[in-house]
Records
---
Amino acid sequence: MTMSKDKDVLLSAKDLEISFGSGKNKFVAVKNANFDIYRGETFALVGESGSGKTTIGRAIMGITPTSDGDIIFNGEKINKPKLSNEEKHNLTRKIQMIFQDPQASLNERATIDYIISEGLINFHLFKNEKDRVDKVTQMIESVGLLPEHLYRYPHEFSGGQRQRIGIARALIMEPELIVADEPISALDVSIRAQVLNLLKKFQREDNLTYLFIAHDLSVVRFISDRIAVIHLGQIVELAETEELFTNPIHPYTRALLSAVPVPDPALAKQKKLTVYDMSVHHYETDKPKFVEIRPGHFVWANQQEEDLYRNRLAKAHAH
Amino acid sequence: MSDDAKSILSVKDLSVGFKVRGRKLRAIRNVSLELHDQEILAIVGESGSGKSVLTKTFTGMLESNGGITHGTIDYDGKRLSDLKKDKDWIGIRGKEIATIFQDPMTSLDPIKTIGSQISEVIIKHQGKSAKEAKKLAIDLMARTGIPNAADRYNEYPFEYSGGMRQRMVIAIALACRPKVLICDEPTTALDVTIQAQILDLIKELQKEYHFTTIFITHDLGVVASIADRIAVMYSGQIIEYGKADEIFYNPRHPYTWSLLSSLPQLATRGGELFSIPGTPPSLYKDIKGDAFAPRNPYAMKIDFEEEPPMFKVTETHYAKTWLLDPRAPKVEKPSLIQNLHQRFLDMQASDAAAKLEMGGGSDDDE
C-alpha cells in the first residue's frame, strides 16, 4: 500500500530522546527513536505498558517536552522550547488526538454540539452561525450519529458512540495527522469494528495520516501499513506490516507475536509461548544501532546480530 | 469433558434483578447452567451481557440493590440461592468458591506485605500456625511463578509488577484450596505477553490442584487456548453453549457467528472489518422474542414475537435460536467463519514458514 505511493514524509522522529527528571533522578522513557510517518498511511507504535509508546504520542502533540533529537512535521522542527503563537496554533489544528477512554476525554457538562464545535470556535473556522451548524451537522452524520444527538450530553451515550464523538471532535479540525492512543481498547468487540471501519473510511476519503498507538497486535495487523515495535523506550524493529508478521527478526518482536492469542482451539492448544530474555544481547563492547536490514525493515542490533539477522533473512527470502 | 461429567454447581432458571433509581433492571433472565467437575468453563459476552452478575450470585456478592428474583443455585448439597446473610456465606465464599478480579491492585491490600496477605488466609482457613503458614505461603508463591519467593515474601504490592500482582491474587485465592475458582477477566488489564503467561499458569495450577474454573471474558481469542466448554451470553441469557471446538467450529447462534466474525485475526488488510450493527437492547425494558433479533440479519418474524427455547445440537451443544427449529429455513453460517481451522492453519503456515527457515525459530544461535 505505502510502497507503491511516492513517499511523502509527513512527520519524522530523529534520534529522539524523552526523559523525565534530572540528575540522579533522570529517567529516560524513550531513546534513539527514529522513524518516518508517510502522508496517508497508518503507522502503528506497538508495545507493552511502560514501553514509552504513549510518551512518543504525547511528545508529538507537544504535551511532553523532549530532551534530545528532533520531531519534524511538514519539514519544520516542532519540538523546540519556544514555538511562536502562530506555530502552536497551526500545530494544534494540524495534529489532533483520539484518546483511549471516551468516558474521561469528553466534557461531561457540555453538549455534544459544543464539544464538536469547540475547536471551530477557538480557531474561528466558520463564517457564520449557519456555517458552524452545517459543519457540525455534517460531521456528526459522517460518524454515524444523528443531528438530534447534538443537544445531548456525553453520559447519554454508549462507549462506542462516545468514541465516535471523540473522532468527530478531532476530525472537524481537518487535521493532517491523528494520534490515536489505544482508541479501541476500552470498547467491546462488536463496537471495536465499527470504530476501526470509521477510522479507515476517513483515511480513504481525506488522505488522513494516523499514528496508531496500541498493544494488541491482532488489531494492528488489520489497520496498519507499517509497524514499529517498542520495548522499554527503544524501538527494536520497524517494518511493513506483512514483513513484520512473516519475518519478525528481533527476539522481542517474536516473543510479542507468540503471545497473540490464536482464536482456534486446536491451534491454540499447540502453541508455544516464547519469552523474551534481554540477556541474549551482548552490548558491552559491540554497541547496537538501528540498522536497515532490508529495504524498509529496520532492527536494533549490533554488528554481530546484524550479520546473523542478515543471514536468516537471506535464507527466508531465498525460498 | 465426557457427557456424564459430574456436575458440581447447578443453576436452574435463574433470574437476577436490580433496582436502579426506582426502575427495575433485569440483568439475568432465566439462565440454567451445569458446572462440571474440574473443567474450565468460559463465559463469553460483551459488557452488560450479565456474565459477571451471574457468577457473583455464586458467592453472594451481588450489589445491595440487586437480588435473585427467580430460580435456584445448588452447590454441594447447599442451596446457595437461599442464603441471605453474609454469615451464611462463611465457609463457602473464598473457601469453596473463590474469585479473582480484573485489577490485581484493587484486590490486594496496599499496606500489607504480599507474604502476610497469603499467610493470613492460610491461618484463617486451614488453621495452621504462623510459622507453617509462612512456609506454605512461600511455597505457593514459588508455584505461582515468583522467583526468589522467600526474599520477596516481605515486599509490598507496589513493588510487584502487574503480572506478578495477578499471580499473587491467584496465590491468595488458592491458599484456601477452593473447589471452584471464578476468574473475572483476570488478564484484561495485563499486557499480551503477561496475559499468555497467566493463562498458562491457570492451566498448570488446575492440573495440580484439581479445582474447577469459570473464566469470564469478552475476548473469544483468549478463550480458545484455555476453555473446555464455552457459554456465550447476550442480554442476560446464555444463548449458546458447548465444547470449545463446537463453539468455534460449529457455532449455531447468529450472535456467536457475529462474535467470531468480529475477530480482528479474520480481517483482511485494506478490507472492512466485520461489525455488528446497532447496540444491545436496554435491560430496563421487557425484551420480546430473541434479544438479538434487531441486530440479526437472519432474524425471522418469530424472532421478534416469541423467545426461542434451547435447541439441542449435540449431547453437549445447545443453542437458543429459532434457526434450529425444524420448520426454519436452512441458513449457513457466514462464509467468513467457515473452515475457520483451515484458515488459521494456512495463516500460521505462511507466517511460520519464513520463521522456520530463519534458523529454526530459535533466538540464541550465535
---
Amino acid sequence: MNALRIAGLIWLGLVLVFLYAPILVMAAMSFNASPFYQLPFDFSTRWYEDLASNTAIRTAATRSVLIALAVTVIATALGTSAALALFRYDFPGKRILQVLLFPPIAIPWLITGTAMLIFFFAIGVGRGTPAVLIGHVALALPYVIVVVNARLVSFDRTLEEAARALGANPWTVTRRVTLPWIAPGVVAGALFAFAVSFDQFVVSYFLAKPGDSTLPVLIYTSIRKGFTPEINAVSTLIIVGSMALMLVVARFFSFGGHR
Amino acid sequence: MAGTLSAGDGRRAARLLAPAYLWLTLAVFLPLSAMLFFSFLTAAPFGDKPVEATLSNYRAFFETSTYALLLWKSIKLGLWVTGACILIGYPCALVLAKQIRGRAREALFLLVILPFWSNSLVRIFSWAIVLRGNGVLDRALDAVWPGDVRLALMFTPAAVVIGLVHSYLPYVILTSYLALQAIDDDIVEAARSLGARRLTILWRLVLPLSLPGLLAGAVLVFVPVVGSFMEPRILGGRFGTYYGTVIEDQFVAVFNWPLGAALSFILLAVVLLILGVSSPVLRRGMQ
C-alpha cells in the first residue's frame, strides 16, 4: 500500500461523503421536531404523521405513481417491440431511426418541455395529466429501447432461425424464444421507465395543470413558497424509494460494472 | 444489407417500429417544429389578437445585450460545473477502475451511481437545507473552528455550482469508468516493465485512451447545465437569474410564449452545435 493508493481511497471516500451527506442531513432533519431545522436535535415523527393527513401531498403522490405505472406499461411495450425490430431487420434508414432516439435524451428538458407545452396547446390537448403522460412516455421510450437493445446484443440470432425452421410462426418465436431471453433487459427497461416518469420534474412542471400537479411539481412550488418539514419528510421517502428501485434494477441489469 | 428485406418482413418491421416512432414524432419532433414556427409569431395564436409573422423575437436577442449576456452566464456556469465534475470525477473513476477489485468495486460503483438515479429536485432541496444560514454546515464548521466564521453559501453562485456538481458528477464518473475499464491491464504492465513512471503512464497512456469517455461525460454534464433553471432558482436566490430561468419566466410568469420559443430555440441551436462538434467523440465514448 503506497501513498498514492491511500490518497486514491481517501479521494473516493470524500466523493462518497459529498454525494451522500446532504441526503443524510435531509433525512435526519425530517425527524427533527423543530419546524425551522433548529438544533439541538429533538427526535420526532410528527412530520411523517402530518404527511399522512396532508391530502394535497397524498393526491399528488397518488397521481405521480399512477402516471409512472401507465408510462411503464406503454413505454415498455412500444420500446421493446421497436428494439426487436431494430435488432432483427436490416432496412434503409435504420441508422437514422437509431440516431433519432438521442434528441429526447440529449436535448435539455427545458427545451423539450416548453416545446411540448406549445404544441399540446396548439392541438387542443392543453395542460393536464394526459399531456404529462404523453410527454413522459416519449422521454422514457429511448431508455427502454437502448436497455433492451443492450440485452439483445448477446442474443443468438440462430435460435430464432432454428425455431422458425421447426415451423414456429413469428409471434410464437417472439413469445417462446426471444422474450424469455431478453426478459431481464425488459424488466430493467421497465424500471428505468418508471424512474424517469416518477422523478421527472421539468417536463411535468410545464405540462401539469396548476393545482393538479405531480409530486415533484408540488415539492418545487412548496420549496419556493418556503421551507416546510413535511416536504422534507416526503422527499426522504422519495429518495429512499428510488434508491431501492435502482438497487432492484442493478440486480437485473449490470451497468458494465464487472468483468 | 439494406434492400434485402422481403415484403412480409418489411410489414412486420414497420408494425413493430411504428407505435414507438409515431409517439416520438407526436411528443418530441412535432413540438420542436411547432416551437420553431411559434418563435416567428407576434403572439400565441390562441387569443383574439391578430397574429403576424415577425423576426422581432430573435431581434430582441440580438439587439439588446440582456439575453446574450445571460446565455454567456449560463455557458460559463456550464464550464465551471463541467470542470469541477472532471477534476473530482476522473480520479474517482481511476481509483474505481484500476485500484479496487472484485465485489468491493461492484458495490462502490453502485454506491457512486445510485444518487444519479434518484430525484434531482430532492437532492437540490437537500443542499438548501445543508447550506442555509445557521444551517447544518455552519454549525459543523462552528464546532470544528469556533469563532464567528460564516460561510453564507446559500443564495450565492457557489451554491448553484455545488448543487449542479452534485447532480451531474455521477455522469463523468460513469463514462470515465467505462472507458478506463476497457483499457487492457497488460498494456499498463508493459509500460511499467519498460520503465515508465506512474505519472508518465497516466499522462501518456491511460488519459489518452480514456479521453473519449471523459469527453462524453463532459458533454453530458455541460448540455443540461446550460439549460438548468430549477437549481439556480432554489439555490441561487437573487443571483439565480440565468438563461434557463428567463425562458421559464416567459412560459409560467410573463406568458410571452413566442419570445420564450425564440430563446429556447437559440439555446437548442447552441446545444446542437456542441453535440454536433462532439458527436465523433461521443460515439466513440458510448461504445
